[in-house]
Structures are given as C-alpha cells and as structure tokens.
Write a structure and sequence with these properties.
Blueprint (H helix, E strand, L loop, with lengths): L1 H4 L3 E5 L4 H12 L3 E5 L12 E3 L6 H8 L4 E4 L7 H6 L1 H21 L4 E5 L10 E2 L14 H21 L2 E7 L1 E3 L12 H11 L4 E5 L5 E2 L1 E3 H14 L5 E3 L5 E2 H11 L5 E5 L8 E4 L2 H5 L8 H27 L2
Parallel strand pairs: 1-2, 1-4, 2-3, 4-5, 5-7, 6-15, 7-12, 8-11, 9-14, 10-15
Antiparallel strand pairs: 10-13
Helix pairs in contact: 2-8, 3-5, 5-6, 7-9, 7-11, 9-11
C-alpha cells in the first residue's frame, strides 16, 4: 500500500470532514503529498499538507486545484438527515451536481491518473440487503429522493467519462458512517450523532427516541471507511463498491451503547408515534471483501471514541455545522 501512494500528489475534496480527516492522515503516513480542498481548515490535519479554501461550483477553481495531481479522492458533499433533505432539497441537489460535474471535468482536462467518486447509501431503494448491481433497476427512497438522485447523477457522470476517455475512475457507496467531525445537530444529523447530541442535551436524565428500536442499520466508523477507500483506489475495480460493515445493528443496541458511556443513568422513552424508518437496511459488502478489506474496529469502542470527541469539541462542532449551512 505504501509504495502505491508514496510521493503521489493527491487531492482530497472535503478533506476536513468526518471521512476526509481520517483519509488525509492515513495518506500522509503513506508518504503522499496531499492537498485538501474544503470550506474550512480542520486544525487536527497534518501540518505538511496543502490546504485550499475553494468553491468547487466554479469550474476554473476545479481546474486549478487538479493541475499536476495524480489521484483525486472526491469526498465533498452536502450531508444531513432525510428530514433536512426534504425541507431543503435544492440546497442538497444543486451544489452537489455542480461541484461533482466540475471536479470530474477538471480531472479529465488535467489527465488525472485515478479518480474516486464518493456516492452514498442514499442512492438505493429501501431493501433489506443493498447490492451494488440493483441500483439502476430501482429508484432512490422518497426519504432520500433529491440527494439520492444528485449522487446517482454523479455516478452516471463518472461512468460516461470512463466510457469516453478510458480514465481510471471508481465509485464507492459508504453505509451509515459515524465518527469525529460529523454533523451532531440533534434535528438534522444521522442516527448516531443525533442520539449522542440528545443525550448531552437531556435536562432530566430522560431521552426520547423515535420508533421502537428494532430497526436494523449498517454502521461503519469513519476510519474504516478511509481504509476501504485507500484499498479501492489501489485496486481500481471497474464497478461500484459498497463500504459498510455488512452487519445489521438494532437502534436499541446503539442507544444502549451510548447510555453505557454515561453509566446507564438515562431513562429511554421510545416514541412509537413517530416512524423509525425502514425495518432493515444492510449493505452487501461481498465485492469489498473480494478486494481484501477487513474491518479492524469495534462498534462500542468507536461510539465511545466519538462521544469523547464530541464532549471535547461540542461547541466547535455545532458552530462549524451552523456556519457551513449558512453558506
């Protein structure tokens, strides 16, 4: 792995985010020369990277940042809950289509050697097991309709570019990712960070959780996703690859793990008047395993690590989220 990345000039868009920050640190350790493009500098990133605050909705900006770059990891995206996507569909869809198209076009112009596009679990229709080959036989969930289609359009753009130019381009579809530098806003975040925020915001040692906790989801830690991305970029498969744990975990177990961090002091109130979403959504990771991926980390440990990070960075995390969404 190290010889593949050593001295390569690598661009990571969205490199200050949850997955990006882990990926950048790993790339630096592997000897890569890393440029990060993001709206905000993550102070925990290695000091020997090049950081550029760039609006990727502008094609000329994209052409500049991809010049003389060997590999591009395109992670930049708009993240939020299905509820947020419903309320602000244009805010999700329009920027993603613009910067996805621009960074792909810029990579083509500058003859980038390899390109990875980060898609999403949101491209899938609700199903118990999510298989890569089934995406184009279905439609995205109505809960992820606009964001899902924006990601699908990005995938189609990648496939069209590959077909016309022969460029080495890969697509990855991460599952429910969690970790430091996530969006922890209680109302708009995904499951784990939203629950963590609820526990911290509780004023009477009680936490309300929607649904009955029986729903199964595929959760994976941000560092594991970064490891998988490094592997997929190197292997360069000619097909999209799911990145998940391949295992279903009930929401009730996630709540129990979070509560255990606080000494089980919180009473959980299950509000079944509100929907808990699809009963089961687990990724088929057969293709990822065939490439040689083995998940290293443990769920409880990583959730507790994420809580520790949020505890230390709570004010920064929420300010960063609110600032991002004002732009």
């Amino acid at each position: 792995m190290k010889n593949f990345y050593k001295n390569k000039k690598i661009l990571v868009t969205g490199g200050s985010g949850m997955i990006g920050s882990s990926l950048v640190k790993k790339l630096v350790k592997l000897g890569a020369k890393v440029t990060v493009v993001s709206l905000e500098l993550n102070r925990s990133l290695p000091k020997n990277i090049i950081f550029k605050k760039v609006d990727l909705r502008n094609l000329q900006n994209c052409i500049k940042v991809t010049k003389k770059i060997d590999y591009v990891f395109h992670l930049a995206g708009i993240k939020g809950s299905p509820l947020m996507a419903k309320k602000l569909p244009y805010k999700f869809m329009s920027p993603m289509i613009m910067f996805n198209t621009n960074i792909i076009e810029a990579a083509k112009i500058n003859k980038v050697k390899r390109f990875m596009y980060t898609s999403s679990i949101g491209v899938y229709e609700p199903a118990p097991i999510l298989k890569e080959k089934n995406v184009w036989e279905t439609f995205p969930s109505k809960n992820d309709w606009f964001a899902g289609w924006a990601k699908r359009i990005g995938e189609l753009t990648i496939e069209a570019c590959k077909k016309e130019t022969g460029m080495n381009m890969t697509i990855v579809r991460p599952a429910n990712v969690f970790g430091p530098y996530d969006n922890f806003d209680e109302k708009t975040a995904m499951v784990i960070p939203s629950l963590i925020s609820k526990f911290f915001n509780s004023k009477n040692n009680q936490v309300e959780v929607w649904g009955d906790g029986s729903n199964l989801r595929d959760f994976i830690y941000s560092e594991d996703v970064a490891d998988a991305m490094l592997l997929v970029m190197k292997k360069n498969p000619n097909f999209p690859v799911n990145i998940g744990s391949g295992n279903g975990v009930r929401i009730k177990k996630i709540v129990t793990i979070i509560n255990s961090y606080f000494g089980d002091k919180y009473k959980i109130n299950w509000n079944t008047n509100f929907p808990g979403g699809d009963k089961k959504r687990i990724m088929d990771i057969s293709n990822l395993k065939k490439l040689g991926f083995k998940r290293k980390s443990l769920l409880k440990k990583n959730i507790h690590n994420t809580i520790e990070w949020f505890k230390t960075n709570k004010k920064f995390s929420l300010q960063r989220y609110n600032s991002f969404n004002e732009k």
